Automatic annotation (TrEMBL):
Any one GO MF annotation of this record: transmembrane transporter activity
TM ranges: 70-96, 116-133, 145-164, 209-229, 249-268
A Pfam family reported for this protein in Swiss-Prot or TrEMBL: BPD_transp_1
Alphabetical UniProt keywords: Amino-acid transport, Cell membrane, Membrane, Transmembrane, Transmembrane helix, Transport
CDD domains documented for this protein: TM_PBP2
Family: Belongs to the binding-protein-dependent transport system permease family. HisMQ subfamily.
Main location: membrane
UniProt organism field: Bradyrhizobium stylosanthis
GO biological process terms held by the UniProt record: amino acid transport
Cellular component per GO, a single term: ATP-binding cassette (ABC) transporter complex
Annotated compartments: Cell inner membrane; Cell membrane
Domain ABC transmembrane type-1: 70-268
Protein name, as recorded: Amino acid ABC transporter membrane protein 2 (PAAT family)
Bilayer topology term: Multi-pass membrane protein
Length: 278
């Protein structure tokens, strides 16, 4: 048997390259490190022998007031989400209407409020809505925080409407055909068959919208609402406007919003994995 002069290729076993060690700091440890840095700065301030309050002492002193303002932020976000969800559900169903005129008008309203800047909408509501209204000889005051809530509810309405439309469209068309074969009307099909199936599809994006609203409520400070950011500025001014207090005070506000919104983010991701539609 003759052999040729060509060499045969030899396949060697694959050996992966050694993994490089890397350190990754998650959001929660980073927040803890930020708070520890504030405490370390306060300790150094106390050791320096200064007669003024340290940053940590200032935060502890004013924390009841600041946390009350943060609770006001949460209240505004919850009310805005409630109003926006109710209005968004109706607007989303109007987007799915068989009437072309109603669907077109609803589409224009949805696109306008979805793409309008939130701060501009807030200014429009704050300055165009009167500070009081009279109904049947009864004067009803409209404080700034109520108008701010309405201003935040408008973009929520548009985003929830789009979530409702997308969730209903994602239901297979066979569900409509089966309901029609059982003599269900369109309204019965929507409320008894489609919307119950859409809840698990709408819940994760709905929670994402709420987290965005909760973080955006600080915009109310620009129009004079006494929420956490407004109170933080007032506390900073009350302490003499010391430059070394700027980062700790606003860092405390940042930490409060992070500790509130980050669990919502984790819960949303868990629901997305649990309710994943294949």
């Amino acid at each position: 048997m003759k052999t040729t002069g060509h060499r045969l290729a030899v396949l060697l076993p694959y050996r992966p390259a050694p993994a490089r060690m890397s350190v990754r700091i998650g959001p929660l440890p980073a927040a803890i490190l930020c708070f520890c840095a504030i405490m370390a700065a306060s300790t150094a301030w106390a050791q320096a022998g200064s007669t003024t309050l340290s940053p940590l002492q200032v935060i502890v002193k004013w924390s009841p007031l600041l946390l009350r303002g943060f609770a006001f932020n949460i209240l505004i976000s919850l009310l805005a989400m409630l109003l926006g969800t109710i209005a968004g559900l109706g607007l989303g169903l109007a987007l799915l209407s068989e009437s072309r005129l109603l669907a077109a008008v609803s589409w224009l309203v949805t696109q306008f409020f979805r793409n309008a800047p939130w701060l501009v909408l807030l200014f429009f509501v704050m300055f165009l809505v009167p500070f009081q209204i009279t109904l049947f000889k009864t004067t009803i005051p409209l404080p700034d925080w109520i108008k701010a809530t309405v201003g935040f509810a408008l973009p929520v309405m548009a985003n929830v409407a789009e979530v409702v439309r997308g969730a209903v469209r994602s239901i297979p068309s066979t569900q409509w055909e089966a309901a029609e074969s059982l003599s269900f009307t369109r309204r019965q099909t929507m409320w008894l068959i489609m919307l119950p199936q859409c809840i698990k599809r709408m819940l994760p994006p709905w929670m994402n919208i709420y987290a965005i609203v909760a973080m955006s409520t600080v915009l109310a400070s620009i129009v004079g609402v006494s929420e956490m950011l407004t109170l933080t500025a007032q506390v900073h001014a009350a302490e003499g406007g010391r430059p070394e207090l700027f980062a700790p005070l606003y860092g405390f506000a940042l930490l409060c919003f992070f500790l509130y919104c980050y669990p919502i983010n984790l819960w949303t991701a868990r629901l997305e994995r649990r309710f994943r539609v294949r």
